[in-house]
Amino acid sequence: MHWDTGNIAFMLVSTSLVMLMTPGLAFFYGGLVGRKNVLAIMIQSFVSMGVTTVLWVAVGYSMCFSGSYGDAVNPDIGGVIGNFHLAFLHGLTPTTPFPGSPTIPLIVFVAYQMMFAQITPALITGAFANRVTFKAYLMFLVAWLLLVYFPIAHMVWGGGILQKHGVLDFAGGIVVHATAGFAALAAVFYVGKRRVQDPGLHSIPLVALGTGLLWFGWYGFNAGSELKVDPVTSQAFLNTDVAASFAAITWLVLAWTIEKKPKFVGLLTGSIAGLAAVTPAAGYVTTATAILIGVLASLICYYAIWLKNRLQWDDALDVWGVHGVGGVVGVISLGLFAVKAVNPDGGANGLMNGDASFAVTEIAAVLGAALYAFGFTYVMLAAINRITPVKVSPADEEAGLDQTLHGERAYI
Q1: What pLDDT was estimated at residue 407?
Q2: Residue ranges of the alpha helices (H) in 133-229?
Q3: pLDDT digits (tens, 9 = 90+) for 76-104
Q4: In 10 A of CB 91, how many CB atoms?
Q5: d(Cα 137, Cα 121) in Å, to the nearest integer?
Q6: pLDDT tens-digit series, residues 12-39
Q7: Are 34 and 220 in contact (CB under 8 A)?
Q8: Going by C-beta distance under 8 Å and a sequence separation of 6 or more, which residues neighbour residue 12?
Q9: Which residues have C-beta within 8 Å of that of residue 192, sequence separation ≥ 6?
Q10: Can you list the domains of the chain with their CATH numbers?
Protein backbone atom coordinates (compact mmCIF):
# COMPACT_ATOMS: atom_id res chain seq x y z
CA MET A 1 0.00 0.00 0.00
CA HIS A 2 1.33 3.41 -0.99
CA TRP A 3 0.65 5.95 1.73
CA ASP A 4 0.67 9.64 0.80
CA THR A 5 2.33 11.26 3.80
CA GLY A 6 1.24 14.70 2.64
CA ASN A 7 -2.42 13.68 2.61
CA ILE A 8 -2.07 11.94 5.96
CA ALA A 9 -0.44 15.00 7.54
CA PHE A 10 -3.07 17.31 6.07
CA MET A 11 -5.92 15.18 7.37
CA LEU A 12 -4.39 14.94 10.86
CA VAL A 13 -4.05 18.73 10.94
CA SER A 14 -7.63 19.10 9.69
CA THR A 15 -8.81 16.71 12.39
CA SER A 16 -7.02 18.81 15.00
CA LEU A 17 -8.60 21.98 13.63
CA VAL A 18 -12.11 20.51 13.82
CA MET A 19 -11.42 19.31 17.36
CA LEU A 20 -10.45 22.89 18.29
CA MET A 21 -13.87 24.11 17.17
CA THR A 22 -15.67 22.53 20.12
CA PRO A 23 -13.63 24.43 22.75
CA GLY A 24 -14.04 27.45 20.47
CA LEU A 25 -17.79 27.00 20.62
CA ALA A 26 -17.55 26.81 24.42
CA PHE A 27 -15.80 30.18 24.54
CA PHE A 28 -18.24 31.66 22.01
CA TYR A 29 -21.27 30.57 24.02
CA GLY A 30 -19.58 31.31 27.35
CA GLY A 31 -19.14 34.96 26.46
CA LEU A 32 -22.74 35.32 25.34
CA VAL A 33 -24.34 34.28 28.66
CA GLY A 34 -24.34 36.04 32.03
CA ARG A 35 -21.58 35.63 34.60
CA LYS A 36 -23.56 33.11 36.70
CA ASN A 37 -23.93 30.61 33.85
CA VAL A 38 -20.58 30.63 32.07
CA LEU A 39 -19.30 27.26 33.27
CA ALA A 40 -22.67 25.56 32.85
CA ILE A 41 -22.78 26.37 29.13
CA MET A 42 -19.07 25.68 28.56
CA ILE A 43 -19.10 22.24 30.19
CA GLN A 44 -21.87 21.17 27.81
CA SER A 45 -19.44 21.57 24.90
CA PHE A 46 -16.46 20.01 26.64
CA VAL A 47 -18.40 17.00 27.94
CA SER A 48 -19.60 16.33 24.40
CA MET A 49 -15.98 15.71 23.44
CA GLY A 50 -15.69 12.89 25.98
CA VAL A 51 -19.15 11.33 25.72
CA THR A 52 -19.18 11.43 21.93
CA THR A 53 -15.77 9.77 21.73
CA VAL A 54 -16.97 6.87 23.89
CA LEU A 55 -20.09 6.43 21.77
CA TRP A 56 -18.17 6.86 18.52
CA VAL A 57 -15.70 4.12 19.30
CA ALA A 58 -18.39 1.78 20.64
CA VAL A 59 -21.08 2.09 17.97
CA GLY A 60 -21.11 5.53 16.41
CA TYR A 61 -18.59 5.06 13.63
CA SER A 62 -20.17 1.76 12.68
CA MET A 63 -23.68 3.25 12.73
CA CYS A 64 -22.53 6.00 10.39
CA PHE A 65 -20.12 4.27 8.03
CA SER A 66 -20.65 0.50 7.89
CA GLY A 67 -22.69 -1.05 5.11
CA SER A 68 -24.42 0.74 2.26
CA TYR A 69 -27.91 0.95 0.83
CA GLY A 70 -28.61 -1.70 -1.78
CA ASP A 71 -25.30 -3.53 -1.26
CA ALA A 72 -25.96 -7.27 -1.43
CA VAL A 73 -22.64 -8.16 0.22
CA ASN A 74 -22.49 -5.55 2.98
CA PRO A 75 -25.94 -3.97 3.37
CA ASP A 76 -26.88 -1.31 5.87
CA ILE A 77 -30.15 -1.34 7.81
CA GLY A 78 -32.90 0.06 5.60
CA GLY A 79 -30.69 2.76 4.12
CA VAL A 80 -30.98 4.61 7.42
CA ILE A 81 -28.26 3.25 9.68
CA GLY A 82 -25.09 1.19 9.47
CA ASN A 83 -24.91 -2.51 10.22
CA PHE A 84 -22.71 -2.50 13.36
CA HIS A 85 -20.01 -4.65 11.72
CA LEU A 86 -17.42 -2.08 12.78
CA ALA A 87 -18.62 -1.66 16.37
CA PHE A 88 -15.69 -0.99 18.72
CA LEU A 89 -13.70 -0.41 15.51
CA HIS A 90 -13.67 -4.16 14.93
CA GLY A 91 -11.08 -5.26 12.39
CA LEU A 92 -9.49 -1.83 11.90
CA THR A 93 -5.71 -1.77 11.90
CA PRO A 94 -3.24 1.07 11.31
CA THR A 95 -2.74 -0.23 7.76
CA THR A 96 -6.41 -0.53 6.79
CA PRO A 97 -6.86 1.93 3.89
CA PHE A 98 -9.76 4.36 3.70
CA PRO A 99 -11.79 3.40 0.59
CA GLY A 100 -12.76 7.00 -0.16
CA SER A 101 -9.12 8.11 -0.30
CA PRO A 102 -6.91 4.99 -0.30
CA THR A 103 -3.67 6.87 0.32
CA ILE A 104 -4.67 7.54 3.96
CA PRO A 105 -5.39 4.98 6.70
CA LEU A 106 -9.01 4.44 7.67
CA ILE A 107 -8.24 5.35 11.29
CA VAL A 108 -7.52 8.91 10.14
CA PHE A 109 -11.03 9.15 8.69
CA VAL A 110 -12.46 7.63 11.88
CA ALA A 111 -10.80 10.36 13.96
CA TYR A 112 -11.78 13.14 11.53
CA GLN A 113 -15.45 12.24 11.46
CA MET A 114 -15.49 11.84 15.24
CA MET A 115 -14.74 15.56 15.60
CA PHE A 116 -17.84 16.40 13.53
CA ALA A 117 -19.93 14.24 15.82
CA GLN A 118 -18.53 16.04 18.87
CA ILE A 119 -19.47 19.58 17.86
CA THR A 120 -22.91 18.95 16.36
CA PRO A 121 -24.92 18.31 19.56
CA ALA A 122 -22.86 20.97 21.35
CA LEU A 123 -24.24 23.54 18.89
CA ILE A 124 -27.75 22.89 20.20
CA THR A 125 -26.87 23.88 23.77
CA GLY A 126 -26.93 27.60 23.05
CA ALA A 127 -30.69 27.43 22.51
CA PHE A 128 -31.54 26.28 26.03
CA ALA A 129 -28.83 28.16 27.92
CA ASN A 130 -29.49 28.61 31.66
CA ARG A 131 -32.50 26.29 31.72
CA VAL A 132 -31.55 22.60 31.49
CA THR A 133 -30.23 20.25 34.17
CA PHE A 134 -26.87 18.60 33.52
CA LYS A 135 -28.27 15.08 34.02
CA ALA A 136 -30.97 15.68 31.42
CA TYR A 137 -28.42 17.16 29.03
CA LEU A 138 -26.20 14.07 29.28
CA MET A 139 -29.18 11.84 28.49
CA PHE A 140 -30.14 14.14 25.64
CA LEU A 141 -26.59 14.09 24.27
CA VAL A 142 -26.48 10.29 24.10
CA ALA A 143 -29.98 9.88 22.69
CA TRP A 144 -29.57 12.65 20.12
CA LEU A 145 -26.34 11.21 18.77
CA LEU A 146 -27.74 7.68 18.55
CA LEU A 147 -31.10 8.56 17.06
CA VAL A 148 -30.57 11.77 15.10
CA TYR A 149 -26.95 12.49 14.21
CA PHE A 150 -25.75 8.96 13.46
CA PRO A 151 -28.69 8.05 11.16
CA ILE A 152 -28.55 11.33 9.24
CA ALA A 153 -24.77 11.11 8.88
CA HIS A 154 -25.16 7.59 7.47
CA MET A 155 -27.95 8.58 5.09
CA VAL A 156 -26.00 11.53 3.67
CA TRP A 157 -22.33 10.50 3.97
CA GLY A 158 -22.11 6.83 4.89
CA GLY A 159 -23.66 5.09 1.91
CA GLY A 160 -27.27 5.51 3.03
CA ILE A 161 -30.41 6.19 1.07
CA LEU A 162 -29.95 9.94 0.60
CA GLN A 163 -26.40 9.59 -0.67
CA LYS A 164 -27.51 6.89 -3.10
CA HIS A 165 -30.17 9.25 -4.42
CA GLY A 166 -27.65 11.95 -5.24
CA VAL A 167 -27.75 14.19 -2.16
CA LEU A 168 -24.54 16.20 -1.72
CA ASP A 169 -23.38 17.91 1.45
CA PHE A 170 -19.70 18.78 1.27
CA ALA A 171 -19.03 19.35 4.98
CA GLY A 172 -22.27 19.35 6.94
CA GLY A 173 -24.96 21.85 5.97
CA ILE A 174 -27.53 19.08 6.34
CA VAL A 175 -25.77 16.70 8.71
CA VAL A 176 -24.48 19.33 11.15
CA HIS A 177 -26.09 22.76 10.85
CA ALA A 178 -29.65 22.12 9.70
CA THR A 179 -30.13 19.24 12.12
CA ALA A 180 -28.59 21.07 15.08
CA GLY A 181 -30.39 24.32 14.30
CA PHE A 182 -33.85 22.83 14.03
CA ALA A 183 -33.26 20.55 17.00
CA ALA A 184 -32.40 23.74 18.88
CA LEU A 185 -35.73 25.27 17.84
CA ALA A 186 -37.58 22.20 19.14
CA ALA A 187 -35.70 22.52 22.43
CA VAL A 188 -36.72 26.17 22.67
CA PHE A 189 -40.38 25.25 22.24
CA TYR A 190 -40.22 22.36 24.70
CA VAL A 191 -38.17 23.98 27.46
CA GLY A 192 -39.87 27.37 27.20
CA LYS A 193 -38.65 30.80 28.18
CA ARG A 194 -36.17 31.60 30.89
CA ARG A 195 -37.89 32.61 34.12
CA VAL A 196 -35.01 34.86 35.10
CA GLN A 197 -33.83 37.58 32.77
CA ASP A 198 -30.17 36.91 31.96
CA PRO A 199 -28.21 40.08 31.17
CA GLY A 200 -26.10 38.00 28.79
CA LEU A 201 -23.01 39.13 26.88
CA HIS A 202 -20.88 39.23 29.99
CA SER A 203 -17.66 39.02 27.92
CA ILE A 204 -17.52 40.09 24.28
CA PRO A 205 -13.77 39.32 24.22
CA LEU A 206 -14.65 35.67 25.00
CA VAL A 207 -17.11 35.71 22.10
CA ALA A 208 -14.37 37.10 19.86
CA LEU A 209 -11.92 34.42 21.01
CA GLY A 210 -14.49 31.71 20.34
CA THR A 211 -15.25 33.14 16.90
CA GLY A 212 -11.56 33.21 16.03
CA LEU A 213 -11.14 29.57 17.05
CA LEU A 214 -14.26 28.54 15.15
CA TRP A 215 -13.22 30.42 12.01
CA PHE A 216 -9.72 28.94 12.20
CA GLY A 217 -11.07 25.45 12.78
CA TRP A 218 -13.53 25.78 9.92
CA TYR A 219 -10.70 25.50 7.39
CA GLY A 220 -10.21 21.93 8.62
CA PHE A 221 -13.98 21.45 8.71
CA ASN A 222 -14.49 22.44 5.07
CA ALA A 223 -11.18 22.01 3.23
CA GLY A 224 -10.51 18.77 5.11
CA SER A 225 -13.78 17.33 3.86
CA GLU A 226 -12.17 16.71 0.48
CA LEU A 227 -10.19 14.05 2.43
CA LYS A 228 -7.04 14.69 0.40
CA VAL A 229 -5.04 17.59 -1.01
CA ASP A 230 -6.08 18.62 -4.52
CA PRO A 231 -7.54 21.68 -6.30
CA VAL A 232 -10.97 21.10 -4.69
CA THR A 233 -9.32 21.35 -1.27
CA SER A 234 -7.94 24.75 -2.22
CA GLN A 235 -11.29 25.90 -3.59
CA ALA A 236 -13.09 24.84 -0.41
CA PHE A 237 -10.50 26.64 1.72
CA LEU A 238 -10.85 29.91 -0.21
CA ASN A 239 -14.65 29.67 -0.35
CA THR A 240 -14.74 29.23 3.43
CA ASP A 241 -12.87 32.45 4.13
CA VAL A 242 -14.61 34.46 1.42
CA ALA A 243 -18.12 33.54 2.58
CA ALA A 244 -17.28 34.28 6.22
CA SER A 245 -15.72 37.64 5.41
CA PHE A 246 -18.48 38.87 3.12
CA ALA A 247 -21.11 37.70 5.61
CA ALA A 248 -19.36 39.48 8.48
CA ILE A 249 -19.18 42.80 6.61
CA THR A 250 -22.76 42.46 5.35
CA TRP A 251 -24.02 41.93 8.91
CA LEU A 252 -21.94 44.83 10.20
CA VAL A 253 -23.33 47.23 7.59
CA LEU A 254 -26.89 45.96 8.01
CA ALA A 255 -26.80 46.27 11.79
CA TRP A 256 -25.07 49.66 11.60
CA THR A 257 -27.83 50.90 9.30
CA ILE A 258 -30.71 49.54 11.39
CA GLU A 259 -29.30 49.74 14.93
CA LYS A 260 -27.23 52.92 14.32
CA LYS A 261 -24.04 51.41 15.77
CA PRO A 262 -21.35 49.16 14.23
CA LYS A 263 -21.73 46.26 16.66
CA PHE A 264 -18.76 43.94 17.23
CA VAL A 265 -21.02 41.03 18.19
CA GLY A 266 -22.92 41.56 14.93
CA LEU A 267 -19.71 41.30 12.94
CA LEU A 268 -18.81 38.08 14.76
CA THR A 269 -22.29 36.60 14.39
CA GLY A 270 -22.32 37.39 10.68
CA SER A 271 -19.07 35.52 10.14
CA ILE A 272 -20.50 32.39 11.78
CA ALA A 273 -23.63 32.62 9.62
CA GLY A 274 -21.46 32.79 6.51
CA LEU A 275 -19.37 29.85 7.64
CA ALA A 276 -22.43 27.73 8.38
CA ALA A 277 -23.99 28.53 5.01
CA VAL A 278 -20.93 27.85 2.86
CA THR A 279 -20.26 24.52 4.59
CA PRO A 280 -22.46 22.30 2.37
CA ALA A 281 -21.30 24.01 -0.83
CA ALA A 282 -17.63 24.77 -0.18
CA GLY A 283 -16.21 22.18 -2.57
CA TYR A 284 -18.91 22.41 -5.22
CA VAL A 285 -19.23 26.12 -6.10
CA THR A 286 -17.12 28.96 -7.48
CA THR A 287 -15.68 31.73 -5.36
CA ALA A 288 -18.22 34.16 -6.83
CA THR A 289 -20.99 31.89 -5.55
CA ALA A 290 -19.31 31.73 -2.13
CA ILE A 291 -19.51 35.54 -2.02
CA LEU A 292 -23.21 35.37 -2.84
CA ILE A 293 -23.77 32.68 -0.20
CA GLY A 294 -22.05 34.83 2.44
CA VAL A 295 -24.15 37.88 1.63
CA LEU A 296 -27.42 35.93 1.44
CA ALA A 297 -26.71 34.08 4.68
CA SER A 298 -26.04 37.31 6.53
CA LEU A 299 -29.19 39.00 5.27
CA ILE A 300 -31.49 36.03 5.79
CA CYS A 301 -30.07 35.02 9.19
CA TYR A 302 -30.25 38.61 10.45
CA TYR A 303 -33.96 38.75 9.65
CA ALA A 304 -34.51 35.22 11.00
CA ILE A 305 -33.22 36.48 14.35
CA TRP A 306 -35.44 39.56 14.04
CA LEU A 307 -38.42 37.24 13.43
CA LYS A 308 -37.44 35.07 16.41
CA ASN A 309 -37.36 38.15 18.63
CA ARG A 310 -40.67 39.35 17.25
CA LEU A 311 -42.27 35.98 18.00
CA GLN A 312 -40.58 35.92 21.43
CA TRP A 313 -38.90 32.55 20.96
CA ASP A 314 -36.25 32.26 23.66
CA ASP A 315 -33.45 30.85 21.52
CA ALA A 316 -30.89 32.30 23.91
CA LEU A 317 -27.86 32.28 21.63
CA ASP A 318 -29.58 32.23 18.23
CA VAL A 319 -28.70 28.68 17.25
CA TRP A 320 -31.73 28.35 14.99
CA GLY A 321 -31.29 31.75 13.37
CA VAL A 322 -27.58 31.28 12.61
CA HIS A 323 -26.95 27.55 12.22
CA GLY A 324 -30.39 26.23 11.30
CA VAL A 325 -31.32 28.96 8.85
CA GLY A 326 -27.72 29.35 7.67
CA GLY A 327 -27.44 25.64 6.94
CA VAL A 328 -30.69 25.62 4.97
CA VAL A 329 -29.62 28.69 2.98
CA GLY A 330 -26.36 26.96 2.13
CA VAL A 331 -27.96 23.72 0.99
CA ILE A 332 -30.51 25.53 -1.16
CA SER A 333 -27.69 27.64 -2.63
CA LEU A 334 -25.82 24.44 -3.43
CA GLY A 335 -28.88 23.12 -5.26
CA LEU A 336 -29.11 26.33 -7.25
CA PHE A 337 -25.49 27.20 -8.01
CA ALA A 338 -23.38 24.01 -7.94
CA VAL A 339 -21.18 23.62 -11.00
CA LYS A 340 -19.51 20.34 -11.89
CA ALA A 341 -16.49 22.11 -13.33
CA VAL A 342 -15.39 22.99 -9.77
CA ASN A 343 -15.49 19.33 -8.69
CA PRO A 344 -15.55 17.08 -11.78
CA ASP A 345 -15.31 13.82 -9.83
CA GLY A 346 -17.80 14.37 -7.02
CA GLY A 347 -19.82 17.47 -7.83
CA ALA A 348 -23.00 18.27 -9.73
CA ASN A 349 -24.70 21.01 -11.70
CA GLY A 350 -27.36 22.98 -9.91
CA LEU A 351 -30.53 24.59 -11.25
CA MET A 352 -28.68 27.60 -12.67
CA ASN A 353 -26.40 25.23 -14.55
CA GLY A 354 -29.11 23.09 -16.05
CA ASP A 355 -30.10 20.45 -13.48
CA ALA A 356 -33.39 21.25 -11.77
CA SER A 357 -33.67 17.73 -10.34
CA PHE A 358 -30.52 18.20 -8.26
CA ALA A 359 -31.97 21.37 -6.72
CA VAL A 360 -35.18 19.54 -5.83
CA THR A 361 -33.16 16.69 -4.30
CA GLU A 362 -31.14 19.06 -2.12
CA ILE A 363 -34.14 21.06 -0.93
CA ALA A 364 -36.11 17.93 -0.10
CA ALA A 365 -33.16 16.44 1.79
CA VAL A 366 -32.46 19.48 3.96
CA LEU A 367 -36.12 20.08 4.77
CA GLY A 368 -36.64 16.40 5.58
CA ALA A 369 -33.59 16.29 7.85
CA ALA A 370 -34.62 19.52 9.59
CA LEU A 371 -38.15 18.24 10.16
CA TYR A 372 -36.90 14.91 11.51
CA ALA A 373 -34.41 16.60 13.86
CA PHE A 374 -37.11 19.00 15.09
CA GLY A 375 -39.75 16.35 15.70
CA PHE A 376 -37.50 13.77 17.26
CA THR A 377 -35.81 16.29 19.54
CA TYR A 378 -39.13 17.48 20.91
CA VAL A 379 -40.31 13.91 21.57
CA MET A 380 -36.94 12.97 23.06
CA LEU A 381 -36.99 15.84 25.56
CA ALA A 382 -40.51 14.90 26.61
CA ALA A 383 -39.38 11.31 27.18
CA ILE A 384 -36.32 12.39 29.17
CA ASN A 385 -38.52 14.61 31.32
CA ARG A 386 -40.41 11.50 32.44
CA ILE A 387 -37.15 10.09 33.78
CA THR A 388 -35.53 13.21 35.22
CA PRO A 389 -36.54 16.88 35.16
CA VAL A 390 -35.27 18.62 32.06
CA LYS A 391 -35.74 22.17 33.31
CA VAL A 392 -33.93 23.55 36.34
CA SER A 393 -35.90 24.87 39.31
CA PRO A 394 -36.71 28.58 39.57
CA ALA A 395 -34.39 28.85 42.57
CA ASP A 396 -31.47 27.29 40.67
CA GLU A 397 -32.09 29.52 37.68
CA GLU A 398 -32.14 32.57 39.93
CA ALA A 399 -28.89 31.63 41.66
CA GLY A 400 -27.14 30.65 38.44
CA LEU A 401 -26.27 27.18 37.19
CA ASP A 402 -22.53 27.42 37.75
CA GLN A 403 -23.03 27.33 41.50
CA THR A 404 -26.21 25.26 41.82
CA LEU A 405 -25.40 22.52 39.31
CA HIS A 406 -21.61 22.39 39.39
CA GLY A 407 -20.53 24.05 42.65
CA GLU A 408 -18.05 26.25 40.83
CA ARG A 409 -17.74 29.88 39.80
CA ALA A 410 -16.15 31.33 36.69
CA TYR A 411 -15.14 34.50 38.52
CA ILE A 412 -14.30 35.16 42.14
Answers
A1: 95
A2: 134-144, 150-157, 161-164, 179-191, 204-223
A3: 999 999 999 999 999 999 999 999 999 99
A4: 9
A5: 10
A6: 999 999 999 999 999 999 999 999 999 9
A7: no
A8: 108, 111
A9: 131, 314, 391
A10: 5-406 (1.10.3430.10)
